[in-house]
């Protein structure tokens, strides 16, 4: 159930900023939510996460941004969603240590940075289709990358860390109660 909660948080993190006019914050729970969903649900259940985020993309594009929706503009992003779910399942399902989560956060944010900006450079006329144009595209996106790393780290840290913290507190309380019993 917690995995679906993470998915809902990811969807809401994309929609609510537009509802409240706070889009300048740049926070999104998508990367961390997908990692957690993938780690806690079966591989094939990742399709639910991908479908939820596909619907979010459609909603935002057509109703919030008022642009025409073209599936071809989102294929790479949707494949990335699926890839992050599978990555979370592969790397974090069995042993979600702090080091593994940190590595997954960096891999998730970096892969989105590399893929999304390559698609922008290749598929638009915003930058010249040259090596300097590609470099300019990546340099312009660095602030977005920093926001994504922080957002993904906060989200994944909360989703993976809070349950671990709760288990540790419960174990400490349980051990404290056992040590107070008379012999």
UniProtKB/TrEMBL annotation:
Q: Which UniProt keywords apply?
A: Membrane, Transmembrane, Transmembrane helix
Q: Out of the domains of life, which is the source?
A: Bacteria
Q: Quick check: keyword Transmembrane helix in the entry?
A: yes
Q: Which InterPro entries match?
A: DUF6580
Pfam families recorded: DUF6580
> Transmembrane stretches, by residue range?
20-39, 46-65, 71-89, 101-124, 144-165
Descriptive protein name: Uncharacterized protein
Species: Edaphobacter modestus
Taxon lineage: Bacteria, Pseudomonadati, Acidobacteriota, Terriglobia, Terriglobales
